[in-house]
Specification:
This protein has 190 residues and is of the alpha/beta class. The protein has a single domain, classed as Spore Coat Polysaccharide Biosynthesis Protein SpsA, Chain A, CATH 3.90.550. A 7-stranded mixed β-sheet has the order 3-2-1-4-6-5-7, with helices on both faces. It starts with a strand and ends in a 14-residue tail after the last helix.
Amino acid sequence: MLPTALVPVRISPLSKSRLAHLLPGRDRAVLVRELFDRVVDVLLACGLRVVVLAPDEMGRRPDVETWTDEAVGLNAALGAAVDRAGVPVLIVHADLPDITTEDVFAVLDAPGDVVIARARDGGTNALLLRSRLRPAFGRLSALRHAQRARAAGLRATVIDRPGLALDVDDGAALTASSSPRPSSSRRPTP
């Protein structure tokens, strides 16, 4: 059974404030939209049902469902969305410039009740929940997700994939991202 993909996003001139010294608000909103569209397109190419989780209409796309946040804060909003969607669910952040279908299939094919795609800073950029677990995104969340899973008696797998490791949160990540490249819509052959 394929999971529902949840993509939390905030698209506004206030988004990505750590890039304010490099990009004015309007340009940051455009960047967030472009990154978000890339992530959604990749997830759709994988054949997943995609649900955008947003506080307002800015994250709306006609080809995917949009749910309004039901709680305040990222983890609370995602927790409510996971409860609504049920498991399995794949949470993917909207700011991954190098994500490919191969990266998504690597997460889907990984063993475990909880699969954590670790960000290069130790955070979590994708989280596959085959069993219920409360999201705990934030600093060093890959470790926190693994610890929570194991404490709940669940099997946790942490994977490192270049396309899932880089999220655009600061100027260094913005310059480190490769140029967008097309990704195939089929599973790689083993």
